[in-house]
Write a structure and sequence with these properties.
The structure is a single chain. By secondary structure, this protein is mostly beta strands. The chain has a single domain (14-207), classed as Sandwich (Jelly Rolls), CATH 2.60.120.590. Helices cover 13% and strands 33% of the residues. It has helices spanning 28-44, 94-103; strands at residues 14-16, 19-22, 61-65, 69-73, 76-80, 112-118, 124-127, 139-145, 147-152, 162-166, 171-174, 183-189, 201-207. Strands 1-2-11-8-13-6-3 form a 7-stranded antiparallel sheet, with helices on one face. A 4-stranded antiparallel sheet has the order 7-12-9-10, with no helix packed on it. A hairpin with a 2-residue loop joins β1 (14-16) and β2. The chain is globular, with a radius of gyration of 16 Å. It binds N-(carboxycarbonyl)-S-(naphthalen-2-ylmethyl)-L-cysteine and fe (iii) ion. Residues 19, 114, 116, 124, 129, 139, 141, 148, 172, 174, 178-179, 181, 183, 185, 203, 205 line the site of N-(carboxycarbonyl)-S-(naphthalen-2-ylmethyl)-L-cysteine.
């Protein structure tokens, strides 16, 4: 794969602390096609509210596709091979795999497509993604629906951080030194997108787990 610059994958529109932002990577028809595929994922593996370590449900609702999905209860956070219903996770949609192949710059295929659903009041606190075995593999994220205020910090929780609004169709790639940065979603801006039938935001993250 190459682009007009001859680089092996497309240049980002911006880079924040090493996180590569491809603003507007998906046009409206591509966003609609992806949402249709995600409806099928949610039908097979309904959204649920993971428990925090403190015993309160997270404000973000989640489900997954692929060999592994993300799960948490009082025993902690982990990847598991089935939905809480007992059924295996559905396959990762081709529409999502195509984004990984175009932008991930990865040598392996993703094993988890985590779907986060944010209602108007949902947020995600500052955290690191470190439950995967191989930090040389990137994480790729796709934003759909209402704008989300993304916070990206450093390798320690307390340090300085930057914020940027993520819009529907934006793709982020976290590889190399950016893979273990602290990050979160401070809030969403309900009603800023017409993609979804109700106020809210969907974020997909594609990951290699093993
Ligand atoms: C930077 N999701 O699922 S996506 C997550 O919008 C998560 O739902 C947020 O953080 C969301 O774990 C942020 C951007 C993102 C995802 C993974 C990263 C940024 C990252 C991993 C490492 C560094
Ligand atoms: Fe994360």
């Amino acid at each position: 794969m190459s682009n007009p610059t001859g680089n092996p994958w497309p240049e980002p529109t911006a880079t924040l602390r090493g996180v590569r932002l491809h603003a507007g990577w998906l046009d409206r028809p591509a966003q609609e096609a992806l949402v249709a595929d995600l409806r099928a994922v949610i039908a097979a593996a309904p959204l649920f509210s993971p428990m925090t370590a403190w015993g309160r449900p997270m404000s973000v609702r989640m489900t997954s596709a692929g060999r592994f999905g993300w799960y948490s209860d009082r025993r902690g956070y982990r990847y598991v091979d089935r939905h809480p219903s007992g059924l295996p996770w559905p396959p990762i949609p081709e529409s999502a795999l195509a984004i990984w192949r175009a932008l991930g710059g990865a040598t392996r295929e993703p094993e988890c497509c985590l779907l986060n659903w944010y209602g108007p009041e949902a947020r995600m606190g500052l955290h690191q993604d470190r439950d995967e075995a191989d930090f040389a593999q990137p994480v790729l994220s796709v934003s759909l629906g209402d704008d989300g205020l993304f916070r990206i910090g450093g390798h320690n929780r307390g340090g300085p951080s930057d914020r940027v609004w993520l819009r529907s169709g934006d793709v982020l790639v976290m590889g190399g030194g950016a893979r273990l940065l602290f990050h979160g979603i401070d809030r969403i801006a309900p009603g800023t997108s017409t993609l979804l039938p109700a106020p809210g935001r969907i974020n997909l993250t594609l990951r290699v787990v093993t």
